[in-house]
Specification:
The complex is a heterodimer of chains A (213) and B (134). Chain A is mainly α. Chain A is 76% helix and 0% strand. The longest helix of chain A is centred in the N-terminal third of the chain and has 36 residues. The N and C termini of chain B lie far apart (94 Å). At the A-B interface, α1, α2, α3 and α6 of A face α1, α2 and α3 of B.
Chain lengths: 213, 134
């Protein structure tokens, strides 16, 4: 991409840069829609098991640390802010500031993963594990293992998305530092930020369902 | 040829605006997070605690989608795409739950309450001994 930040290279099947940009954004939104449906499948599993074992799921959520969950929620919400501000700076051609904000987003994502690691470690040592590995004696009831199966599947898949988002934004930070983005061309940062906001969106639903109720 | 617009006014990515709205949305999201935590502490009665939690989560998600993801500015296909995804999600979860809720008796596992066992006791205890009947 041209470092003077004039415009993106126009692919031959688009009549102009504006159409190309709209197509890129719509393509990203279609991908995000598929990601929403991917997590919907896991939310469906959660909903079904919650319906079948309501008291067990309510009781099991007490064994997931609400304060770490609150902290992680604040971390991800703030990381969405820094990602949005990073795009804002990239659009104005402020490459170094954009790179700094995108790296801040990445650092907050890493903080999220570290806190999640502490949580997982606690679950491992207490035996709160999925399916056949469940051995926690503090909650013995039908459906107890299914809560932690759903918990690990959903937070694990979400954590994978956080790692992918961190990689994407890291690469965008490098390009922003090199001054490749401007008002006329900032599509990669915009699309990467959209992915990161989706990661935050998913956590916004995961947090109350797994931790609070 | 597309309509030429000056960079200082409307742009292909939407009208220019300051970064202030992001900070306002951020504060709103943190406030809603605190609210959902307080609603949990307030022990909202059964089934409403789920409704309250989902309503707050949907509000937060809408703020993120509209302002951080710029759906407020980009009318058209992007909004339609995400609304379609949400519609199908509601359909999937709604119909699966409807199926389970309307099954014949004894078609679902028993909805026994949760209870805490003794440390090390993972097996469901044997049912109490019954007098041998006639």
């Amino acid at each position: 991409m041209p470092p003077d930040g004039t415009t993106a290279r126009l692919a031959h099947h688009f009549p102009d840069a504006l159409t190309q940009e709209h197509a890129a954004r719509l393509g990203m939104w279609i991908f995000l829609a598929t990601e929403i449906l991917l997590f919907t499948a896991l939310f469906t599993a959660y909903s079904l098991y919650r319906y079948l074992f309501p008291e067990t799921f309510h009781e099991a959520s007490r064994f997931v640390d609400t304060h770490i969950g609150l902290a992680n929620t604040a971390v991800l919400i703030t990381s969405s802010l820094t990602a949005a501000l990073g795009l804002h700076s990239a659009r104005r051609g402020l490459g170094k500031r954009a790179a700094g904000l995108l790296l801040a987003t990445l650092a907050l994502g890493a903080t999220f993963m570290v806190l999640k690691g502490f949580e997982y470690h606690h679950h491992f040592v207490t035996g709160q594990l999925p399916g056949r590995y469940y051995s926690f004696a503090g909650l013995v009831a039908p459906g107890a293992a299914m809560f932690f199966t759903v918990y690990f599947l959903m937070t694990g898949l979400h954590g994978l998305h956080v790692l992918v988002g961190m990689g994407v934004l890291g690469w965008m930070a490098v390009r922003a530092w090199r001054g490749e983005f401007s008002e006329a061309y900032h599509t990669p940062v915009e699309l990467g930020a959209l992915y990161w906001h989706l990661v935050d969106l998913i956590w916004i639903f995961l947090f109350p369902l797994l931790y609070l109720i | 040829m597309p309509t030429e617009t000056t960079v200082s006014d409307a742009t292909p990515s939407g009208r220019r605006h300051g970064a202030g709205r992001y900070l306002v949305v951020w504060v709103g999201l943190l406030a809603l997070t605190a609210l959902t935590y307080l609603a949990r502490r307030a022990e909202v009665p059964e089934p409403w605690h789920l409704v309250v939690a989902l309503a707050i989560a949907t509000t937060k998600a809408s703020l993120v989608a509209l302002f951080f993801m710029h759906l407020w500015e980009h009318a058209g296909a992007a909004r339609l795409t995400v609304l379609t995804a949400v519609a199908f999600a509601a359909l999937l979860i709604g119909l699966v739950l409807l199926d389970s809720a309307t099954r014949f008796p004894y078609a679902n596992p028993p909805r026994t309450g949760a209870w805490r066992g003794r440390p090390g006791a993972l097996r469901v205890p044997a049912p109490p001994a019954r007098e041998p009947g006639p």
